[in-house]
Amino acid sequence: MKRHHLALIAALALAACGGGGGGGATGSNPSAPPARGTLLQTPPELLSTFTISALLTELELPINQLLLSVSSAPLCDIVFYHIQYATVGGAGEATTASAVLMIPSGLGANCSGERPIVLYAHGTTTDRAFNMADLQNAETISLAALFASQGYIVVAPNYAGYDTSALPYHPYLIADQQSKDMIDALTAARTALPLASLTTVKDNGQLFVTGYSQGGYVAMATHRAMQAAGMNVTAAAPMSGPYALAAFVDAVFYGEVNGDATVSSALLLGAYQTVYGNMYANPTDIFEPQYATGIQTLLPSTTPRSQLYAEGKLPEYALYSPTPPAPEFASITPPTTPSDLAEVFALGFGAGNLMQNSYRLSYLEDAQAHPDGGFPAITTGVAAAAPGLPWRQALQENDLRNWVPTAPVLLCGGDVDPLVFFFNTQLMQSYWAAQAPSAPVSVLDLEAAAVPNDPYANLKQDFAIAKALVAATAVSQGATDGGTLAVAEAYHTMLVAPLCFAATKSFFTGR
């Protein structure tokens, strides 16, 4: 997607957005690691106080105008703490991770006493130093504006492998580890809360779980794990996540290459090879030789993406060769339907591609022999029961089409999302409807027309206006595709995200 659209997108200010801790006691062995969920700082590290006036100043910047429009007036100052805690890696190894703890502060009724907790999972990042305590982070500002300043305690982990974590890799989209990480962060935050020096706010027992993109997946995996453990979840709102992970990756191999495929593939295979050890015998089994060296540990990195692209460590878009891996796959190299995403799919094919054509062929043959029940056709609705390829086996293990929520859930996204396809949401919705028709599940598609008494009608209208403005401005700047790629560039992170955040706040209010 064309980078010259970024100035337009920034100007629109569509902000980016992807109980108990378990683990045994350390006993008397002084060399044993701390139990999962142990707070590793006493007291927690005080970072700063974000006043109402400072938050308003931030929201009034051009880049935050849409977020400002969907936010209520801030009610509370916010005290930021950085916490570090004990958790586990993808193979169960002891490690550490960190999180931001945002605590409302002030004289208002919403800013003191017993308050609910929002546990938030962030979206995909390649930045090894990523920290949700950074006020320059758009997700952090969104959480501050919509939740912490309104009286919610916010716990937002950075995940193992980021910030100060001792883990040398990130267990990307490994459901068991990522849910344990979230639960451990919550446990540590509840320990830190009464030790926080500038506030007397307490946990009132209500817990809301949410996250965006990768974080949508993590939020759902966390809700599933908490429910299985008998922990209280008041409500959850996963947003735009790859919940039907096995179907999603199958779709990418069938040619529906999402807009961030080279990055997500490198993160996913790096994590899965590290944890499961059988994705490949040699990196060149999957990756083209020019990228194979060091690919397992390439991401996350302190090197910016743009530099990785410039240094030839990773292609920006080209996941596959434009040559079909076999004649029968010519029509999906690339596919031309659905037409509203065809231009995005086409970007995933080109010279200097990341993956070997021979591996794409092996994957497609396995997908045909052991088809997913949700893609390319809906049959059982669940992941393939016994795939033969190790990567598809790992995807099946981490797919979330295997549980039904008992607490209220809102799934939010947009039907033409080019990064995380909306069929992830649709497959979860249909799976839950088949398994438990009375499950308390709501779905918000921002592309859908408003219906009578629609609580999200204004958000849908704002979304349509913002999309049209992105497209029109791109055309005025010389785009010849009607602004299609400009909208695709903005869609997931800058168009859908702030409106799903606002919908989530509305969904949680009053529960």
How would you describe this protein?
The chain has 511 residues and is an alpha/beta fold. The chain folds into 2 domains: 28-243 and 403-449, 3-Layer(aba) Sandwich (Rossmann fold), CATH 3.40.50.1820; 245-398, no CATH class. The chain has helices spanning 6-12, 52-59, 65-70, 138-146, 175-192, 214-228, 245-253, 261-276, 289-292, 305-310, 342-347, 357-369, 390-398, 423-435, 457-476, 484-508, and strands spanning 45-50, 77-88, 94-105, 114-121, 153-157, 202-212, 235-239, 409-413, 441-445. A 9-stranded mixed β-sheet has the order 1-2-3-5-4-6-7-8-9. β4 (114-121), α4 and β5 form a beta-alpha-beta unit. It is globular and about 70 Å long. The protein starts with 5 loop residues before the first helix and ends with a helix. Mean pLDDT is 93; it is low at 1-28.
* CATH architectural grouping of the largest domain: 3-Layer(aba) Sandwich
| String of helices and strands | HEHHEEEHEHEHEHHHHHHHEHEHH
Amino-to-carboxy terminus distance:
41 Å
Number of strands: 9
Residues in β-strands, percent: 5-15%
Order of neighbouring strands in the sheet with most strands: 1-2-3-5-4-6-7-8-9
